[in-house]
Design a protein that fits this description.
Blueprint (H helix, E strand, L loop, with lengths): L2 H9 L5 H16 L5 H14 L5 H10 L7 H10 L4 H42 L1 H45 L5 H29 L7 E4 H16 L6 E6 L5 E4 L1 H17 L8 E9 L4 E8 L6 H6 L15 H12 L3 E7 L3 E9 L2 H8 L2
Parallel strand pairs: 2-4
Antiparallel strand pairs: 1-3, 4-5, 5-7, 6-7
Helix pairs in contact: 2-4, 3-5, 4-6, 6-7, 7-8, 9-10, 10-12
The protein binds adenosine-5'-diphosphate and magnesium ion.
Length: about 375
């Protein structure tokens, strides 16, 4: 056991209320930092269980907060006792710890499941292609991780610096001899906008990396598209009056799809089509059409007459973080591509001319039973 833990255990027996309280907080910090070796968790846990019955409620409350990361069975005795406490603050803290704890357990479980899956894939790779393949795969994965971390950092900084600037301006506006409420509100509003963007980027990042279990069913393409259109109208809200959507999709077409994911892909594409009209005078017209081409596929096109893209923008549009919009995140198309190509085995392409508009072409697989039917003479 380290000297630091010995000292902590000694402090946890102190008679001085303030010192005891500090020691409990310190125990929580060490547990959170994973700085308590497994061998010492039992002793520390037992000490905290005793303190869960301490005469002072402040100490008991501190214990309720400290045990959140205690990885020892004594956690259960401590929390059971604290949940029955006479003091409402102690009970509240214990309830919070319990809620947080179940979240932590879920995250741990998921992480462990992912790691097992990855290890299994690497072992299979090694069995088929030799040890070199395993090393190479790990190297590629590391490189990708580096790229993602670097790009994410860059994107966050791009929002954090102006956010910082807004707060500094607010600070100096508040420090002036005459405080102008209007100016201050302006700085607060831009700080809020930037914070919202930051949180949108983080949510998109999480959605993009989320592992989904595919749940494929026979879906009616028209129904899925109508739902995506409905969601778009709701999002655009009061501004929806200037929105003209033309849907030409045969209601008989069935596709093999993971409905919820495909909806997300179409939503992202439609959102871009609406945003393509930002800053233009045109009526916001979007045409969605689908045709089966006599093969196993259906081709869906989404066409707008918005701002269009230069060749450069179009060639980068599927890259993560690629955006030309002041509040864009650059996740819409990469996510749509991942859903359509990787998850559905389809394809997505863009054709666009700057100043004239864009057509997004999505190819999907027709539902199996329908495919067979159509193949019959
Ligand atoms: N319909 C469209 N019309 C014009 N440009 C588009 C269209 N769809 C996508 N783009 C371009 O592709 C970029 C990436 O789109 P996306 O990944 O959805 O990110 P975001 O919408 O957050 O910018 C957009 O910033 C825009 O430049
Ligand atoms: Mg988008």
């Amino acid at each position: 056991m380290t000297e630091r833990i010995f000292e902590l255990l000694r402090a946890l027996s102190s008679d001085d209320r303030r010192a005891l309280w500090d020691a409990v907080e310190q125990a929580g910090d060490l547990l959170r930092e994973e700085a308590v070796p497994e061998a010492a968790q039992g002793e520390l846990g037992d000490r905290l269980v005793q303190l869960a019955a301490h005469g002072q409620w402040e100490v008991r409350k501190a214990v309720a907060e400290a045990v959140v990361e205690l990885r020892h069975e004594s956690f259960h005795s401590a929390i059971a006792r604290l949940l029955e406490d006479d003091n409402p603050w102690v009970v509240q803290a214990a309830q919070r710890t319990l809620a947080r704890r179940s979240e932590l357990t879920r995250t741990d479980l998921l992480k462990a499941r992912h790691e097992t899956l990855l290890r299994r894939q690497l072992t299979a790779l090694e069995a088929t292609h030799g040890a070199g393949a395993r090393v190479a795969a790990l190297r590629v994965a590391e490189k990708y991780t580096e790229i993602i971390v670097r790009e994410t950092f860059h994107e966050f900084i791009k929002v954090i610096s102006p956010l910082d600037a807004s707060l500094r301006k607010l600070d100096s506006a508040l420090g002036g001899s005459r405080i102008d409420a209007e100016t201050c509100r302006g700085h607060v509003e831009s700080a809020k906008r930037r914070l919202r963007l930051l949180s949108a980027i983080m949510t998109s990042l999480r959605d993009f990396t989320k592992d989904v279990t595919p749940e494929f069913c026979a879906e009616n393409l028209r129904v899925v598209i109508d739902e995506a259109v409905g969601m778009l109208r709701d999002r655009v809200g009061t501004g929806a009056s200037g929105l003209e959507l033309e849907v030409e999709v045969d209601p008989a077409i069935l596709i093999d799809a993971h409905r919820h994911r495909l909806l997300q892909a179409f939503s992202n594409i439609l959102q871009n089509a609406v945003e393509a009209y930002d800053g233009t005078e045109h009526a916001r017209r979007i045409a969605i059409a689908a045709r089966t081409d006599g093969t196993e596929h259906v081709v869906v096109t989404i066409t707008d007459q918005g701002c269009g893209m230069s060749d450069q923008v179009r060639s980068e549009a599927f890259e993560l973080f690629a955006t030309v919009k002041p509040t864009g995140t650059g996740f819409g198309l990469p996510l749509a591509q991942k859903i359509i190509e990787q998850e559905h085995g389809g394809s997505i392409d863009l054709s666009s001319r700057k100043g004239e508009g864009t057509t997004v072409k999505v190819v999907l697989n027709i539902e199996q039973a329908q495919r067979k039917q159509e193949a019959q003479p």
